[in-house]
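RECORD TYPE: inverse folding
INPUT: structure tokens
STRUCTURE:
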């Protein structure tokens, strides 16, 4: 009976990442005080934390705990702690000042998970003319953190509150990207010598 069952082939999609030029444009957007602070904060959270939308949609003001010098860390209900960088702390301080009149406001983003993705894509397409999902932001954060930590999967998994298995799935793809970049650098060096 089992001989007649066909196992469907699953296609593994390549992970998508932001490139350096796109990252720089997004950083400029986050620093641009002419843009809406809500949009800048949402994009900032995607860029600077890599947290999945399930965590972003749950963010509340009470999760932000001061850690000195106007900086914060996030303390989630399940006692997971996420340190946030100074750029994001500055955005949060600006957001907090803008909305301090809203005494009863608890949630940072009043969006459900699907709308949070849509909003992220819509804002990002205005910045870099390409729709970027929270997953692509997360992939980019994982890639950069693996590079910085010299592939310390466990440290990156703690930062993102994701399983080590999820993080390790990026290693092979990142190695391919690195190999390709080293190849291009070698070609550039070869052509420079011949001039």
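DESIGNED SEQUENCE:
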């Amino acid at each position: 009976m089992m001989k007649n069952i066909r196992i469907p082939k699953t296609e593994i999609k390549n992970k998508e990442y932001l490139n350096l030029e796109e990252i720089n444009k997004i950083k400029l957007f986050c620093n641009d005080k002419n843009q809406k602070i809500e949009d800048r904060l949402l994009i900032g959270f995607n860029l600077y934390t890599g947290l999945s939308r399930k965590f972003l949609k749950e963010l509340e003001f009470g999760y932000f705990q001061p850690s000195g010098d106007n900086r914060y860390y996030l303390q989630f209900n399940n006692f997971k702690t996420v340190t946030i960088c100074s750029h994001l702390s500055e955005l949060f301080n600006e957001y907090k000042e803008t909305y301090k009149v809203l005494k009863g406001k608890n949630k940072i983003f009043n969006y459900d998970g699907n709308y949070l993705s849509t909003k992220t894509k819509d804002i990002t397409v205005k910045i870099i003319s390409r729709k970027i999902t929270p997953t692509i932001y997360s992939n980019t954060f994982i890639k950069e953190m693996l590079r910085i930590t010299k592939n310390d999967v466990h440290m990156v998994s703690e930062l993102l509150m994701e399983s080590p298995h999820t993080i390790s799935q990026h290693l092979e793809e990142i190695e391919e990207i690195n190999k390709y970049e080293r190849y291009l650098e070698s070609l550039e060096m070869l052509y420079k010598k011949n001039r």
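NOTES: Strands lie at 64-66, 72-75, 81-83.
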